[in-house]
Amino acid sequence: MNHPKLEGSEYKGRVEKLRKIMANDGVDLVVGFSNLLEIGIVRYYCGFAPVNESSAIIIPADGIVTVCSGQASFDYCEVMNALPDSRIAILPEIGEVSGFEYDTEGQLDFEELFQQIKSENKNIKKIGFIGRLIFPSIIMSKLKKVFSDAEIVDYDDVHYEQRIIKSDAEIEILKTNWSMVSEMFENVVPKIEVGMTERHIEGMFEYEMMKLGAESYVQSFAPMVATGPKNSYISMCRNTLRKIGESEIINLAAGVSYEGYNGIICSPLVLGKIPQEIKDAVMCAYDALNYASDKMKPGTPCDVVLNAYTEYLTKYGYIDYCPYGSLHSTGMLECEAPTFTVTNKRVIEENMAICIDAYFKGMPWGSFRIEDCYLIGKDGAKRMTTYNDKAILKIFK
Question: How far apart are CA 251 and CA 269, in angstroms?
Fold first, then answer.
């Protein structure tokens, strides 16, 4: 399996692109923050993602970019920061959340760092911040104190718009993820047996993904194995010690992260004799997903895709069991902004990486999800995760 890496020139190009947008918006400084739920904001611009801390990045309209690490991850930051001509700062406000204090030489706090940035960059009048749902108040208050005369604006939308169209280098990374997660399912699912616990199966997925070269499971959830009428009802879950039985629904959701990018598959499974009502529902969901994804062509508004999905389920009588038809960008998060909705009519574009899933919930025998990853080419969408195409027809047809 190919294991490509991103080069420093890729990160430098991202910063340069952001700076062009900043110039157009009259923004003089951008401050981005990442924690373990959205680790990609900082990593997108420099390649650094901490292990057990948060991180930040400060990008002026011109001059030196500062990559911010906590105390414990500082050495790792020195190794992983791939942005040319940047510097690293150690800051306690993004350290371990227990408040553990390190006696680290050269340590600043954010107020001191912002003062330094202010002295280097005169006339900062407008500041963009990235991470609206996670940006800490302690850092924001110091930003406002030091730059008391500056306007501070939400820059999340700008950041996620920058991430939605993938570069050639990103596509190669994603192809590795998609190949990895497909092979993982092909290797693990045939080994699942009646009597195994949900957590046992979770461990099988994690073992296989690491063997294949993943750095972790998909950002930011471990493999989910939701089984039987009750447990499968839960969309997002932590696995239990429940043992799986014959002829019941098993909802498998697992993904891999490699080089900061993600690949995901969700797939139903039944061991032993499969009740006809489960076969019918799974095949309808699979056919609806294919019907909708065929319409994902460059220039097509996303409401065309989403409406096709709901119309198909309405025709075959399953719409009441479908809480939503999801169409979302994927990349440094398994599910990342901006969203595709019937209302916003966002247009499908070439080199988008998109997940589409069919989620059937609350049937008498349980719930399940089918999800795959697609790459938008000039002629349409190509399903890049290959397991479901092989397995669903074989198991449920």
Answer: 6
The rounded Cα 91 to chain-centroid distance in angstroms is: 26
Provide DSSP, 81-135: ---TT-EEEE-GGGS-TT------TT---HHHHHHHHHHHS----EEEEE-TTT-
Residue scoring higher pLDDT (236 or 279): 279
Residue ending a domain, choose from 100, 128, 163: 163
Give the 3-state secondary structure of residue 260: coil
Phi-psi region of 36 (alpha: psi -120 to 50; beta: other; left: phi over 0): alpha
End-to-end CA separation in angstroms for the chain: 31
Q: Per-residue pLDDT tens for 304-326?
A: 999 999 999 999 999 999 988 78
Q: Does some domain include residue 173?
A: yes
Give the C-alpha separation, 355 to 95, whole Å. 34
pTM above 0.70, yes or no: yes
Angle at 328 between CA 326 and CA 334, to 5 degrees: 110
Counting beta carbons within 10 angstroms of the beta carbon of residue 28, is it exposed (0 to 12), middle (13 to 18) or buried (19 or more)?
buried
Place of tokens 């890049």: 384
**Residue 62 shares a structural domain with residue 99:** yes
Is 218 part of any domain? yes
144 shares a domain with 245? no
| DSSP 3-state of 50 | coil
**Do 21 and 128 meet the contact criterion of CB atoms below 8 Å apart?**
no
Q: Counting beta carbons within 10 angstroms of the beta carbon of residue 310, is it exposed (0 to 12), middle (13 to 18) or buried (19 or more)? A: middle
Neighbouring C-beta atoms of residue 90, cutoff 10 Å:
22
